[in-house]
Amino acid sequence: MTIVQPMTPARSGTAEPGYMTGFGNQFETEALPGALPIGRNSPQKCAYGLYAEQLSGSPFTAPRASNERSWLYRIRPTVAHWGRFERIDAGLWRTAPCAEVEMPIQPLRWNPLPIPAEGITLLQGIRTITTAGDAATQSGMAAHIYLATRSMVDEVFYNADAEMLFVPQQGALRLATEFGVIDIAPGEIAVIPRGVKFRAELPAGPVRGYLCENYGGALTLPERGPIGANCLANPRDFLTPVAAYEDREAPTRMLVKWGGSLWAAELAASPLDVVAWHGNYAPYKYDLRRYSPVGPLLFDHADPSIFTVLTSPSETPGTANIDFVIFPDRWMVAENTFRPPWYHMNIMSEFMGLIYGQYDAKPQGFTPGGFSLHNCMLPHGPDMDAFEGASNADLKPHKLSGTMAFMFETRFPQRVTRYAAELPERQAEYGAYGAKLRKHFDPSRP
User: Fold this and answer.
1) Distance CA 105, CA 415 (A)
2) CA–CA separation, 323 vs 223, rounded Å?
3) What is the mean pLDDT of each run of 10 residues along the chain (446 residues)?
4) Residue 408, strand partner residues
5) Domains (ranges, CATH) in the chain?
6) Quick one: pLDDT at residue 8?
7) Which residues are listed as membrane-spanning (predicted)?
8) Which of 91, 47, 107 shows the shortest CA–CA distance to 73?
9) What are the percentages of helix, strand and coil residues in the chain, rounded to 5?
10) What does DSSP say about strands 252-258 and 155-159: parallel, antiparallel, or unpaired?
């Protein structure tokens, strides 16, 4: 196998070696000098005998601000990396709409899923917890847990149904994509656009994490409104890989998720053979610890939307197909204020996970690797210990440290899969946590 990194170093600045900085930029990168055409996209003959191929992530006529496409210069075009596809078992991977089981209307929470002892790849280890919307209409999402104990070998995958947001919780993950190589570990995320081929490798042993399939509009940075030009997730902190290619003539299995089904074909060579590319449709990574949070400096608790890292917009302004929201380290300084999240009911539904540390609204029972679901228009909020503690705390400035929780939030109700409903890790008593809250009402005392 030949894996070739660029002949010239990555651009100077804060970028890590092998990455380019910025969100949604018009990037260009080549692994061999002169492989990238200048002044045109599709010359009569490409350098090095390469093929030109365009990968479009939006309709051709999408407005310039939302038009996404990249030109790839590869050893063989994708149509040559093709074979007789056969439908194969998708295991515990489900796609919306999926109504396998009816769950009680209550909060739901699960303990972390154990990493299995047997050898499984990331694709074999995807376990769907919830689905929402309809993949065929390009709306909604699915929330999964991924588990893996071995690298994908002689296998490559792409998802035609959805963009994929990886959130590692345990172990490092290497995503060898046709655009270049992305390394992520707990505290970082990676986004692989639909149609982008990749192989998942485990450079340091077994892994566990969360995965969001986004069927709708591509994830982008939220508008900051009155916050202005800075803070939250800053564009310069997003990293896109530089070109790296494989010139590998060996049997390779191509797997494709299309229409909710998993398909496989045998190829004669690796399709990760892009020698150069340019455009704005590409995979990227982001370190969540670089998120710059904002919040109330005097009193009250702001809406959790102030912690939005990425958003997938819908046709309704201000109503997200998906919001990816985090709860990182931050100072709590509000005076005369109940500082944890308040009790509420919400039109959005919230799938939540804990990467590391402790979540302030649920100090007990919500452990790293665990996850919960608080669905559309169902009540939720702090448990009794969190309420009593926060109601009686000495309100000095306090820093929440060593914590990273997140939400996949969507406008659609999330349907729980049969697999998730029957997991022994589901906390059967969690739905009644609100019943433990004590009555404090006393009409004689204001």
Assistant:
1) 11
2) 12
3) 39 56 96 96 98 96 93 97 96 97 94 97 98 97 98 98 98 98 98 98 97 97 93 97 96 97 97 98 98 94 92 92 96 92 91 94 89 94 90 93 97 97 96 90 91
4) 324, 351
5) 291-426 (2.60.120.10)
6) 32
7) none
8) 47
9) 10, 35, 55
10) parallel
Q: Residues 6 or more apart from 402 whose CB is under 8 A from it? A: 329, 356, 357
The answer to whether residues 1 and 248 touch, using CB atoms and an 8 Å cutoff, is: yes
Asked if residues 352 and 372 have their Cβ atoms less than 8 Å apart, the reply is yes
Q: First-to-last CA distance in the chain?
A: 75
Cα distances from 407 to residues 276, 306, 350, 353, in angstroms, run: 35, 13, 6, 6
Cβ–Cβ under 8 Å, residues 371 and 110: yes
Question: Which segments are annotated as binding site?
Answer: 380, 398
Which residues lie across from 142 on neighbouring strands?
131, 213
Rounded to whole angstroms, how far apart are CA atoms 413 and 130? 9
- Alpha helices, DSSP H, located in 367-443: 384-391, 418-421
CA angle 26, 30, 34 (to 5 degrees): 115
- Tokens found for residue 165: 């947001």
Distance CA 105, CA 231 (A): 37
* DSSP state letter for 418: H
pTM for the structure as a whole:
0.94
Kindly state the tokens that stand for 125. 């280890």
Compute φ and ψ for 104, nearest 5 degrees: -60, 150
Catalytic residue among 81, 144, 278, 301: 301
Of 346, 348, 362, the residue nearest 403 (C-alpha): 362
Residue 234 half-sphere exposure, CB side, CA atoms within 13 Å? 13
Backbone angles phi, psi at 115, to 5 degrees: -75, 125
Residue 410 token pair:
């969507």
pLDDT score of 446: 84
pLDDT given at position 17 = 54
User: 121: buried, middle or exposed (CB in 10 Å: 19+, 13-18, 0-12)?
Assistant: buried
Instruction: Pick left, alpha or beta for residue 443 (phi over 0 → left; psi -120 to 50 → alpha; otherwise beta).
Output: alpha
- φ/ψ region of 232 (left if φ > 0, alpha if ψ in -120 to 50, else beta) reads left
Does residue 374 have an active-site annotation? no
